[in-house]
Amino acid sequence: MSEMKVAFITGANRGIGFETALQLAKQNVLVIIGARHLSDANAAAARIREQGLKAEALKFDAEESKDITSTFDYINKTYGKLDILVNNAGVLLDEEDASVEHKNNTVTSSLEMLKKTFEINFFSVVELTQKLLPLLMKSKAGRIVNVSSILGSLSLHANPQGGLYDSKYFCYDTSKAAMNSFTIHLAHALKDSSVKVNSAHPGWVQTQMGGASAMMSPADGAKTSVRLSLLENDGPSGKFFHLDKELPW
Ligand SMILES: NC(=O)c1ccc[n+]([C@@H]2O[C@H](COP(=O)([O-])OP(=O)(O)OC[C@H]3O[C@@H](n4cnc5c(N)ncnc54)[C@H](OP(=O)(O)O)[C@@H]3O)[C@@H](O)[C@H]2O)c1
């Protein structure tokens, strides 16, 4: 069994996911890049290997259940364990909804958009995590990072003074709130194990999702995921962070 830590990062071909993989690889972690298209995964892994670091590529489409099975089979056969799982892949489909007004589409949002968002941002995260959990249990320090968003914070959304009160993307926000609930429930289920699970808010980051006006670079946006991936054994579990600041659920 390899002594090197092994990480699987979904949606790691670009944006925050790619930077997370690159920064973990710089910390001597062997990173497996998951991407919807194998060609994108291969290109991203090659960019990391060009720097003399260790990276591999896997096809992972969150809407394809068979990709979850093939991911488990590859990691099980090749390494027999997994140290870090970063559930990073995500979509914000609400912005494509022409009916979004005042950033609140709760009344008009289609069930189709809600179901697709939950499929990628929530159901696939649960299915992948449950499938890979036996491999994470074999690690000395298994870490699960659920890449959420401050927009998943129920307490901030409910508070007229909370700063997010008037930013409401119904499908995205509810999918990230569900992911946060998964973090809390899974951390409780794993409390007597060495596996830690936390939610990350990357910040507002310049990616395809975050847009050009965002405040943070992708490299800075990856820092919360990297920190939670490499938590010490006395680190937190079942919490929600941006960098080292704990956020309200
Ligand atoms: N950017 C921000 O300001 C911000 C703020 C808070 C939270 N976040 C969260 O951070 C994470 C990364 O976001 P980002 O800003 O880096 O977004 P991004 O640049 O749009 O990248 C999204 C990634 O998710 C992948 N993806 C989309 N649908 C997928 C599917 N069905 N199966 C597998 N992968 C899929 C994309 O793959 P393709 O290249 O194939 O499309 C891409 O790799 C997301 O979970 C997002 O919600 C971002």
Summarize the structure.
With 249 residues, this protein is of the alpha/beta class. It has helices spanning 15-26, 38-49, 65-78, 111-137, 154-158, 170-189, 218-221, 223-229, and strands at 5-9, 29-35, 55-59, 84-87, 143-147, 196-200, 240-242, 245-246.
- Specify the structural class: alpha/beta
Mean pLDDT: 95
CATH class (first level) name: Alpha Beta
Main sheet summary: 8 strands, mixed
β-sheet strand percentage: 5-15%
Number of strands: 8
The H/E string reads EHEHEHEHEHHEHHEE
Q: What's the number of helices?
A: 8
Q: What global shape is seen?
A: globular
Unreliably modeled segments: none
* Ligand species: NADP nicotinamide-adenine-dinucleotide phosphate
Question: What labels would you give this structure?
Answer:
249 residues; alpha/beta; Rossmann fold; eight-stranded mixed sheet; 8 strands; 41% helix; 14% strand; globular; binds NADP nicotinamide-adenine-dinucleotide phosphate
Q: Could you walk me through the main structural features you see in this protein, from its secondary elements to its overall organization?
A:
It contains eight helices and eight strands. The chain has an eight-stranded mixed sheet, with helices on both faces. Helix 1 (15-26) packs across helix 8 (223-229), helix 3 packs parallel to helix 4 (111-137) and helix 4 (111-137) packs parallel to helix 6. With 249 residues, the protein is an alpha/beta fold. Helix content is 41%, strand content 14%. The mean pLDDT is 95. The protein has helices spanning 15-26, 38-49, 65-78, 111-137, 154-158, 170-189, 218-221, 223-229; strands at residues 5-9, 29-35, 55-59, 84-87, 143-147, 196-200, 240-242, 245-246. The N and C termini lie far apart (38 Å). The chain has one domain (5-92, 121-158, 172-246): NAD(P)-binding Rossmann-like Domain (Rossmann fold, 3-Layer(aba) Sandwich), CATH 3.40.50.720. The structure holds NADP nicotinamide-adenine-dinucleotide phosphate (NAP). NADP nicotinamide-adenine-dinucleotide phosphate (NAP) binds at residues 10-11, 13-17, 35-37, 40, 60-63, 88-91, 120, 147, 149, 201-202, 204-205, 207-210, 214.
